[in-house]
């Protein structure tokens, strides 16, 4: 029987799980089991079926796939949780393995840097409650992740009817203002302190038990100094061990049951119990106290790094002022002062209603008051204002916005009032996508982190085996004291904990990526960050990267009586008048054209404040120029081809050729059959390009080149302006790919800098693809390894400098953590290390590498200077 092929789009079959490969595989497997389906396979974003003829017609195969897709979507869930209490990278790995082993869970991924758990599970085999219960046994709490749309109302703002959760009557909500943060009266503070203390104990039991353990150790130590009986002192130490180690032991035992492996909590528990067993009560208590204290401090410091992402979430306000049709009679409406040209002014029947941003729909009109943050991505409908886009793009100066301009959520409005049409919902705004990409980037492991993970997986079991051998072999083979070698084995168990080593890389990556995001630079992950720090060569696209991508008029050379009249040949004012006359005439011809060169001519005339005469009969000659009637006479602007066989004055023709050779686009201007002169326009280098290239050289980039499809003369002019080492012109896309390959072979690591769309193949081929000006580009945000959110090329040296600083910090952390382990391993075997020293060193090393990594949060753009 001949099979027929049916191709279906995955998003149409699995609309809620289009990006989930696991669900797509489930769907393919389910379809293969259906009668009449011989083959079901995935091909990128498509589902390809080979079916019997009976299923091929009338959409039968599609209906079958849709039915199976609905069943798959109903059966498999993909929740994301915020994990509270996660302060140890090694513990995060244990938690991930435990969730993966849960029956019905198909995959689980724990992002330690962002404290997020993502998983897919089968609703028929397990539930969210089972996952939460497992997390609780391991000492964690799962919460719904923060969302932009779920942000609470701001203090003192007007609530939308029904949108406020405050405990007061909503009947008077129309336009009222209330404050949710009023300070309690003095007489109420004492009464409210007890519930607050109870809440602290319930929410932070680990911290409470750690403080209790420390207090008991201090009491036992002071009692010993004051002559307390040894039994009482030992009892206090045992109580301190139980207080500090209760949650540690519970988590270690739960991890052993869930993963069938020893984790750091179980190792510390064994070490503490072993110390108590041989009478080292003070050391046993000190072990659990220092370990618990270290975990608490690590948690607080990591939370500080994670807070940088939460600060991004807080950039967008919780609510938006939405213009909605008024429900009140016209004569009862409050007097308002609408923005000129706005809907409110034109119709007079709109109210400003404050609505949570998650409830604002695409297409609705929002009002943005002076000084307010922009709540959602939108397009300006009315009003003019300077908007500070630094929180999104990192631009240092406000950008003028008027009708038709794009606004990004999180930007800060200036002195003008704006009305804008919403273009994206809250969870799909540029800011939301940036936050999502930053969180995802933190979970992407660098080469150093992969090395550390592999090393830690082998190191810990090896040291545990060594500890067992140390405890048994010397007493058995050499007659050593059992207590002495058992104690040294306990010290080795503490050294087996790889906390400082495992956390050395993630904290540096979190800090660097967060610092970059605040400056308007997005790294796709730790691997991209590390690769950018190893770059030795950078290739730039020309148009829109090194240059502004918009031509400007560079030369206005008028002719009079057959001779060019240049400024140096005669009176400046007379020449200026000739230039202005020719330029205003050319602008009249080009005024209705949308061609970049035409716009450049009109912009030059407007910049001089010239009066542009009226013109009629506009005609465009593709690839040659334009013509029109000005005061009833023919005016033409264009290249030589526009004028056919018309004789061009020799001096003018020579100047035309000279401008073309210099990389400019020359245009002749003719009026009523007589040539007036020649104009030239060129795409100018960005003001910051030369400084950025120089800064990259100072950072150690060995080769800086330019790859362009433009003419050689144009490429040479721009290359001279920005001072690159090499300029390759006239390149087709495949030739750009070959050039990137050559640079990679010569220098080992090469970056390509482009606009993220036209240069996509070259960006993909390079070691690091860097896209510029991508704040509004979905494609660039998703495909580039590094994204500069604004058109400021000066951000590139900052990004490279930050990457190199991050590599240095990661190397410092890894070497330091390994050195500490090596020193204490040797000291233990020689009998020079104690339990409390080993715990103190492990905890201290972890805190040191965290603090060193967090230095990257303070990295600033001027650090590259």
Your description of this structure?
This protein has 865 residues and is of the alpha+beta class. It contains 29 helices and 30 strands. A seven-stranded mixed β-sheet has the order 17-30-29-28-18-26-27, sandwiched between helices. Strands 20-19-25-24-23-22-21 form a seven-stranded antiparallel β-sheet, sandwiched between helices. Helix 16 runs parallel beside helix 29, helix 17 packs antiparallel against helix 28 and helix 18 crosses helix 28. The chain is elongated and about 115 Å long. About 6% of the residues have low confidence.
Task: Reconstruct the topology from this structure.
Blueprint lengths: L3 E6 H4 L7 H12 L4 E7 L2 E6 L1 H4 L3 H16 E2 L2 E5 L4 H12 L4 E7 L4 E7 L5 H10 L3 E3 L42 H18 L1 H21 L4 H30 L4 H14 L3 H33 L5 E7 L17 H5 L2 E7 L8 E4 L9 E5 L2 E3 L2 H4 L5 E3 L4 E2 L10 E5 L7 H14 L3 H32 L3 H14 L3 H20 L2 E3 L2 H7 L4 E5 H5 E14 L2 E2 L7 H19 L5 H12 L8 E6 L3 E6 L2 E6 L11 H12 L3 E7 L2 E12 L3 H10 L4 E5 L4 H11 L3 E3 L4 H15 L2 E5 L5 H6 L2 E5 L5 H6 L2 E3 L6 H35 L5 H20 L11
Parallel strand pairs: 18-26, 18-28, 26-27, 28-29, 29-30
Antiparallel strand pairs: 1-3, 2-3, 4-7, 5-7, 5-8, 6-7, 9-10, 9-11, 11-16, 12-15, 12-16, 13-14, 17-30, 19-20, 19-25, 21-22, 22-23, 23-24, 24-25
Helix pairs in contact: 2-4, 8-9, 8-11, 9-10, 9-11, 10-11, 10-16, 11-17, 11-29, 14-17, 15-16, 15-17, 16-28, 16-29, 17-28, 17-29, 18-28, 20-21, 23-28, 28-29
Summarize the structure.
The protein is of the alpha+beta class and 865 residues long. The chain is built from 29 helices and 30 strands.
